[in-house]
Amino acid sequence: MRRTYLGEFEELVLLMIAILDGHAYGVTVSQEIEQHTGRIVTFGAIHNTLIRLEEKGFVTSELGGATAERGGRRKRLFKITGLGKSALADIQELRNKLWKLMPDATLKLSGI
Amino acid sequence: MLLRCLHPENTIEEVEGDLDELYVDSFQRIGKTKALLRYLLNVFTVLPPFVRRRAGKTKYEQPFSLSPDMLKNYFKIAWRNIVRQKAYSILNIAGLSIGMACSILILLWVQNELSYDRFHARADQLFRLTCNAGDFKTAVSAAGMSKGLQAQLPQIKGGVRISKPISLLFEVGEKKVEEKRVFYADSNFLEVFSFPLLAGNVATALKDPGSILITETTAEKYYGTRDVVGKTIRINNKDNFTIAGVLANTPSNSHLQFDAIIPMKTMASWDWDLKNDTWGNFNFYTYLELDTKTAESVPAQHKLEQQIGKIFTDHGETVKLDFQLQPLTAIHLHSNLQIDLPGHGNIQYVNIFFIVAIFILAVACINFMNLATARSERRAKEVGLRKVVGANRYQLVFQFLGESLIFSFLSLVIAIGIVYLLLPVFKMLTEKTLAFDLLDGKLMLSLIGIAVLTGLLSGSYPALFLSGFAPVKVLKGKLRVAGGNLLFRNTLVVMQFVVAIVLLVGTAVVYKQLDFIKKRNLGFDKSNLLYLPMNGELRGKRQALKASLAQNPLTENFSVISNLPTTLETGTTDIVWDGQTIRNQIIFPSLDVDENFVKVFKAQVLAGRGFNKSFSDDSSNYMINEKAMQIMGMNMGNAVGSSLTFDETKGTIIGVVKDFHFKSLQYSMEPLILRLNKWGGVVMVRTTAGGNEQTIKALEAINQKLNPAFPFTFGFLDKDLDNLYRSEQQMGNIFNLFACLAIFISCLGLYGLSAFMAEQRTKEIGVRKVLGATVAGVVGLLSQDFMKLILIAIVIASPIAWYSMNKWLQGFAYQTTLEWWVIALAGILATGIALLTISFQSIKAALMNPVKSLRSE
Q1: Which residue from A1, A55, B557, B783 could staple onto B686, CB 3.0 to 4.6 Å apart?
Q2: Nearest by CB to A43, which of B46, B52, B54?
Q3: Predicted confidence (pLDDT) at residue A55 exceeds the cutoff of 50
Q4: Residues of chain B neighbouring A51 (CB-CB closer than 8 A)
Q5: Are strands B141-142 and B282-290 parallel, antiparallel or unpaired?
Q6: DSSP code per residue over B341-386
């Protein structure tokens, strides 16, 4: 089955959008990533990923919610789509399956 | 700023906001320098070539042409336009709604005509057995054929015989009425046909010879209630019939129209044909039910027809006949048979009217298109501006279509109102029961269909034409009405007038033909002929009747004949004359007349003499008409005195009478044999002019004296004759009505156009007047253009009208001539009306003070 490939960073951003549940936009996503992973990512990377995810149909977006702290500019809020959710679920399932296939020894070794 | 210049336009707002927010956030957490550094880095990453562009949407989002907002806008603009240009809107809506109302009425009529006999469950499998001897086509067949054919031909699944309609005197209590629409029918009548029985048992209703079925209306007429099963009706003062069931009223779209049905068994007790199952006497209507396979295939039917013919010959019948199976559903519209049930339609008329309906609607649409294109210049600026602010072509097309749809739906509503208003009149005109029920889904759907079609059709040209304007040219004011536009408009006007003129010619020809038929010398004097059918006891008291008729000076001029000239339909081939070489195959109708016939009818005896009391052997003598004389190969010199054998009675020809029309003029002259009347039939009384009422009273008194048990009935022959041409008369009336309407609609359009033209040429007229043009000159100038168009229309319409009306006239054996002046008259009439219409506007324009029209410059 052909499906749209979801990169590692894309998956991360998509997860964040799902977690933020309607409050996801450039700033919150980048803050959450920084907070949870400690990675400092440039805004351009996030911006581009968001656009790419929307092109792939995993998220939808709309303009809204202008606030004073951004100089009255509107933000683009992202929401995960059904396709996005199933893509995440698929990845999760695949990971679980692969984890089960892994011999216990390997795990322990690496766990030392 | 760098960012503003380079970042893609459609995401700049959100990106800037996000960057600011991030800066504020990091400023609070990690200090100013680092925050600034990160900010710059972030900015850098959203600059090309790093930034990804948001794809898809163009610079600005154009609303979809059919989005709800746009639709709302279309309707709003359309409504404003309608309200603003009242005169224009009224012209348009009036034309469209009248056109639609006409088409709806005509289509109702057409639909009614086409729906005949289709309500029977097995309508497709039912066929009527008809036959013809040469050109003499009849709807009847013999009594024994139904049963005999069923036994031999497996394709025939069943059959039912119906007698000719008969008149019987019904008596219930005090009420005594002669019912004319009574039939005898076989017991399976209700199984074969789907006439619903409201009360009684379908299986047994027509089995018992002493029973009768009556319709609701008949039941209510006599009893005031429908609950009448088991009650008794006394018929013809002697027999009592028990009501075995109540039938629903015959649907108006059935070719069989009856008030009561009596089982065939009743008739079988006294009818010679039925007792002997004859194959030689053609007195019954036979309906056969074929199996599905034969009913579907025409070749199989032809084969069956031939088989029937063969069986008929094998049966020992010597008459040469061809048989046809006539589909039940074709009886109403495709029948031109003799001895048929009355009230048939004509497929030709259905086609003509259907085309007329479409034409009238087309004329109305053309009006709309014409006015809209003529106004296009006025709206060109609007179109230009709309384009400038970004409307695309589709939006404009939808806007104009929306406008015309609003027009057409408004017109539809008005048209429905008109139809409701006119329906009673139209029903009277067509003598039909037409139902117009808006709640009927199919009707509603077709009405909406008509409206949408009209809207789209009439809106299409303006929509496509107007939306094509180039905004720059339009707004500069450079747009002149293109030549193509003008040509198109002119073509439309010509088309309108072609339709109008053809309809006018049609009306004129139909009336001319009717007039011709009415005025044609029938060979006898039809005016002031009163008739009294001899029914009840009158027949037995023939001598007493004759004596009392002769006593009264008002009624002394009388004759007793067997059939009225309107009802004479039977005939025989069983004729032998002197010098005959082969057996006669031509049908000779016969009429039994008495000694007074020639005098009363004012017929002309060409040779020999009429019947006379002083010749005792006249009872076996014959008179013939000229046509019969020709067929027998005789001439004036030798006909009288020749012997003639009619129905195995040998006699001598004593006279030749000049041909007179004893049938509808749709049939050409047929041979006729006159015999001396020995039994009765109808008393014809020649009244004196103006003495009709007294004569009727005298006849009534005689009837009262001799025939007290039967109500008095009488009629006028000339009225009956006129009734023969009823469907033509109807057609004439309807044609007349719609021709007038078509012209009216065309004139509405012309009025609008001329108003517009006059308005456009205001300045030109002003200049001309200043330079010395007269009012008449200006009016001529304005009318000239339209006159040309109408002349072209006349040229095109003439051959069409001539051809189609000639075709129609061919249906008559005796036809009026279609002279050129009829067409010329129609043309002149159309021209006159058009001129009158234009003159309103052109005179107004011509009388205008040039100062006013020129002042603005």
Answers
A1: B557
A2: B46
A3: yes
A4: 11, 52-54
A5: antiparallel
A6: -S----HHHHHHHHHHHHHHHHHHHHHHHHHHHHTHHHHHHHHHHH
How many domains would you assign to chain A? 1
Q: Which of B547, B540, B454, B482 is nearest to B745 (CA)?
A: B454
Q: How many CB atoms lie within 10 A of CB B238?
A: 9
* pLDDT, averaged across chain B: 83
- In chain B, what are the helix, strand and coil shares in percent, each to the nearest 5? 55, 15, 30
- Judge: A74–B54 Cβ closer than 8 Å, yes or no: no
What kind and span of H or E run contains B595? none
A43 and B50 within 8 Å at the Cβ level: the answer is no
Instruction: Kindly report, residue by residue over B824-837, the tens digit of the pLDDT.
Output: 888 888 888 888 88
Give me the residue from A40, A44, A63 closest to B51, CB to CB. A44
Chain A contact set for B44 (CB, 8 A): 44
Name the phi and psi angles at A103, rounded to 5.
Answer: -60, 145
Domain positions in chain B are 2-45, 66-115+344-352+375-474, 123-334, 481-519+723-857, 529-722
| Shortest Cα distance, chain A CAs vs residue B5, angstroms | 16
Site from A47, A54, A62 to mutate, B interface, most B CB atoms within 10 angstroms: A47
Across the interface, do A63 and B50 touch by the CB < 8 Å criterion? no
pLDDT digits (tens, 9 = 90+) for B435-463: 777 777 788 888 888 888 888 887 887 78
List Cα–Cα distances, A9 to A4, A39, A48, A50, A52, in angstroms. Answer: 14, 11, 11, 11, 11
Nearest Cα residue to B312 out of B144, B159, B155: B144
DSSP for B197-239 reads EEES-TTTTTTSTTEEEEEHHHHHHHHSSS--TT-EEEETTTE
Domain that holds residue A32: 8-111
In a domain, A3, yes or no: no
- The CATH number assigned to the domain holding A13 equals 1.10.10.10
- What is the per-residue pLDDT for B59? 45
With beta carbons under 8 A apart, name residues in chain A contacting B15.
26, 47
| Contact between B20 and A52 using a beta-carbon 8 Å cutoff | no
pTM (two decimals): 0.71
In a domain, A1, yes or no: no
Find which of A43, A51, A53, A78 to mutate to test the B interface (most B CBs within 10 Å of its CB): A43
pLDDT in tens, B717-734: 888 888 877 777 877 888
User: Which residues of chain B fall below pLDDT 50?
Assistant: 57-60, 857
* B214-262 confidence digits (pLDDT tens): 999 999 988 888 888 888 898 888 888 999 999 999 888 898 999 999 9
Nearest to A51 among B19, B47, B52 (CB): B52
A47 vs B contacts (CB less than 8 Å)? 11, 15, 18, 45-46, 51-52
**CA–CA separation, B417 and B388 (whole Å):** 42
Q: Which residues of A touch B25 (CB under 8 A)?
A: 27, 31
CA distance A45 to chain B (A): 7
Q: To the nearest whole angstrom, how far is the Cα of B3 from the nearest Cα of chain A?
A: 12
Examine residue A2 and state whether it is found in any structural domain, yes or no. no
Q: What is the pLDDT of residues B88-122, one digit of tens each?
A: 888 888 888 988 898 888 888 888 888 889 989 88
